[in-house]
Amino acid sequence: MNPQLLFWVPVALRMLLVLCGAGAVWYAWGVKAGLATAMLSMLVLVVIQLHYLYRLGIWLDNPNSEKMPDGMGAWTDVFARLYKLRREDERNQAELAEWLTRFRQAMSRLPDGVVIMDDVLFLEWCNPVAEQHLGLNLARDKGMRVTNLVRHPDFMDYIILGRYEQPLTLTLRDRKLLVHLIPFENRRQILVTHDATESDRIDMMRRDFIANASHELRTPLTVINGFLEIACAQPNLDQETRMAHLKLMNEQGRRMQNLVEDMLTLTRLESMDYPLRTEHVRIQELLNQIKQEAEVLSGGRHAVTLAVEGPDVKGNTEELRSAFTNLVTNAIRYTPEQGRIALFWKEDEEGPCFIVRDTGIGIKPEHIARLTERFYRVDKSRSRETQGTGLGLAIVKHVLLRHGARLVIESNLGEGSAFTAKFPKNIALID
To answer: How far apart, in whole angstroms, are the C-alpha atoms of residue 198 and residue 262?
Structure first.
């Protein structure tokens, strides 16, 4: 039915009813009684309408669909329509709140920081990552101006000047951040922060690796090429000198070969396409072989001892051989003659562990954390003497990581060092 008819028909019927009643009173009791009846009836209708308007005003102050007032006549249809609109509005608000909750949950799980601001840079919301990056606290800082919270000159210039074409590179709270402001709607802006510290560190490690590898390869190549030039320039060089040159060239060639093999080993260990193939590792047999090799390398200059008191383990024999050999070889290289090198295999409350303890030159505390970095040298002047590639402890680190283990280093300068490979309990094999 036409909405106008729905409104005016009940009104017309009420007016007709009032007129009929007033006419009947007029006919029965006279003109004054009829007019009084008509005025009283109209007053009652006005009061009723004002009563419903008052109830409507009270409801509009707190528009809850469960507290919708009832009405009669035209008010029944008015309240029914308001109830329908309010229910639709509540549904829309519930859906909007649900989507907002999902949005915030999704934003909270992002690896990047997200800050939502209004058009005058007042903080409306931020995720936990943004709190870490910028030092914000949503509960404390909501409604405050972001440029008053992040007091960095470059950040303030970037935000205020509005040059948003390129992200801002910012060093804040000991981290390298990429900051990008994105206009959002008419009265909101989104600030995105990306932590580039780790990628920057990896790039630096890559550059250092290339530089160090080039340096390590250049030295033996220079020696070999130098002797080859001498051989070409002096074809009648005496036999003794020629043999000495060939011996040095052979040593440098072996050094270069060892370096390349270690680089390939490290690359293979880091590759996700090279899964760990486990087997029964017979520890006693493995460590006996490593001890024999250590005695050959030492040439009788050190006292090498071995004590095996722990179980066999589940792992890759060749990888563990490489890691253990590197630890023992380092101990021999950095322990003076007549020093002692003790090898232990035992089990404690954490699990099996392999310990290499020496009476060598020791390591300063500031170097210990960086020993497993590629090509890191505590003393560059000794690197040529020890004939190491600088990759041994990096290989140890990655082999242990593949076995769920970790390397613990303890050292006192001038007294010696202890390198401990700690394995988890679940790697042990029970007889």
So the answer is: 25
